[in-house]
Amino acid sequence: MAKTTTERLREYLAQLPPKAQALLMREFERAIERGEDAAVATLVLEELRRVARSPSDDLTARVEDPARLAFRPLEPFLVDGNAAIRPGQIRRGSLLPVWQWLCREGAPDAARAFEAALAQPGAASSSSECNRAANAFQAAAVDAIDGVLAGGADSRRTLSRLGSPQAIEDLPAIGAVLKAREALDALNGRLPATLRGFGDSQIASVNGALNNPVLHSRQVLPFALSLVIARLVAPWQVIRLAIAAAASDDEIRVAATPFGVAVTMAIHDLVQIAGGLRADIKRGNFADVPDCLKTVHDGVRGLRTELDIRNDSAWGRQLAAIRVDISNTLQTEIDSVPGRVRRLLRQRPDKDISATSRLDPIDIDETAALIDFVAVCRTYASELAINEVTLRTFSDLQHYLEPTTEALVESLRGADNRTLPFRQMQARAAIRFCEVLFGRDYAALMERAAESALSGERKSARAG
To answer: Judging by beta carbons within 10 Å of its beta carbon (0-12, 13-18, 19+), is residue 30 exposed, middle or buried?
Structure first.
């Protein structure tokens, strides 16, 4: 959707009553869960959440939705979609089935008491009352979740009534976070806003903040590490906590510690970024490609250099798969660039050019983006196993563009009124490509040459 359309949508959603916003949010979450109109539902959900989290909102809008208040401790760990998740994450779509189960049979008395407390006059203006009511319900929810996870035929039947396989899978994590909510909240308050470099002093500081037995349990530690990852400028550096815990960079010793899950989390995040990068490239969306390439490159190199990972281990195979996936995706696109440039800049005989001949501006924009993409890939070529194809393509573009641009500029001198507009479009496209490849100075030189060619042609025409 266009920007103006998105703004209009946001304004419309902001005018809705809080209950209507909450209802819409639930319905679109259900639509995503069912796989219906996922693109539209995701867009509307993003705008709804932006409106709901607006700093100008008062507490009334938040307490109107008991589920949102009850599950607030889960907020830092929620992810959209139903794809596979890593430790330390919970699917947002799982919250509604779990809430409905708690209200229906898991903890119905506590849910009614919670909603009644929020409905009391003055509850909206008292955050302490809201928090007390939420804490009481969360404690009851933990007991209900622990009970249903204890096992037995009744438990299996209860889990089947949750409906969503993803909700069943996320239920233990939801219970663990609600049970450890105070420890996680305290950790959240102790961590620095930003962790740059993540050297020895910061590692020691974070380990101090993590020094709580509750946070070191197998179920809770991934969520504690997720809070650390959210502060890291380079998220893959979370593996340094695992290396520090093992006092070794050997993968076997690292994996044997509870903090070994940090490596699994870092690799999973790189896989997700690589998948997003592949999708962006297939859609021709290159705006975020440089940042994604840098993140994947730095992450893969960091894990390979800071950890002694064996090629035949699970972690080693995962890293190799990331490199192969990225290499295959990039290689296909890189190989296509010279052909696209030649198709646009090929000098055509005058007889093949009509008064209506034109170049597609979108095609020119995409090709310029692809040339820039090749230049960016050169920086990361070695680590991502695309060295040969990148160097070859870059060299081909250099050797083709320079003489071709000069020839196109020169062709402006002898062009007649029928062919001149098309040859000007080709020359302008070539100069734009040169700016991406050779820099602004060379492009400016070609622009002056084109102006001179056109000026000389006009003088010659007047003299005739």
So the answer is: middle
Alpha helices in 35-94 (DSSP H): 38-52, 59-63, 66-70
Bridge partners of 79? 91
Phi, psi (degrees; rounded to nearest 5) at 400: -85, -45
Gap between the Cα atoms of 430 and 408, Å rounded: 8
The DSSP symbol for 35 reads T
* Residue 159: partners with Cβ closer than 8 Å, 6 or more residues away: 148, 168, 171
Q: Report in angstroms the alpha-carbon separations of 22 from 28, 64, 98, 332.
A: 10, 8, 16, 44
Kindly calculate the radius of gyration of the chain based on its CA atoms and give it in whole angstroms. 29
d(CA 59, CA 70): 14
What single-letter amino acid sits at 218?
A: R
Cα angle for residues 337, 338, 339 (degrees, 5° grid): 90
> Which of 299, 297, 383, 369 has the alpha carbon at shortest distance from 333?
369
Model pLDDT for residues 317-372, shown as the tens digit of each residue: 999 999 888 888 888 889 999 999 999 999 999 889 888 899 999 999 999 999 99
**C-alpha span between 257 and 273 (Å, rounded):** 26
Tokens of 5: 């359309």
Structure tokens belonging to residue 225: 């590490």
Confidence of residue 2 (pLDDT cuts 50, 70, 90): very low
| Distance, CA of 364 to CA of 226 (rounded, Å) | 42
Rounded-to-integer distance, Cα 359 and Cα 363, Å: 8
Cα separation, 246 vs 133, whole angstroms: 42
C-alpha–C-alpha distance, residues 69 and 58, integer Å: 14
- Rounded to an integer, what distance in angstroms lies between the CA atom of residue 236 and that of residue 252? 19
**Which pLDDT score, from 0 to 100, does residue 39 have?**
65
- Residue whose token pair is 């050797």: 399
In DSSP terms, which residues pair with 250 in a beta bridge?
308
Q: Is 381 helix (H, G, I), strand (E, B) or coil?
A: coil
Q: What is the DSSP string of 424-437?
A: HHHHHHHHHHHHHH
Could you give the CA distance from residue 188 to residue 226 in angstroms, rounded to a whole number? 10
Cβ pair 94, 123 in contact under 8 A: no
Name the amino acid, one letter, at 362: I
CA distance 328 to 278: 10
Question: For 111-136, what is the mean pLDDT?
Answer: 78
**Closest to 450 measured CA to CA, from 463, 435, 431:** 431
User: Using CA atoms in the order 369, 371, 375, 381, what is the torsion angle rounded to 10 degrees?
Assistant: 100
Rounded CA-CA distance 208/424 in Å is 66
Question: 227: closest CA among 216, 219, 235?
Answer: 235
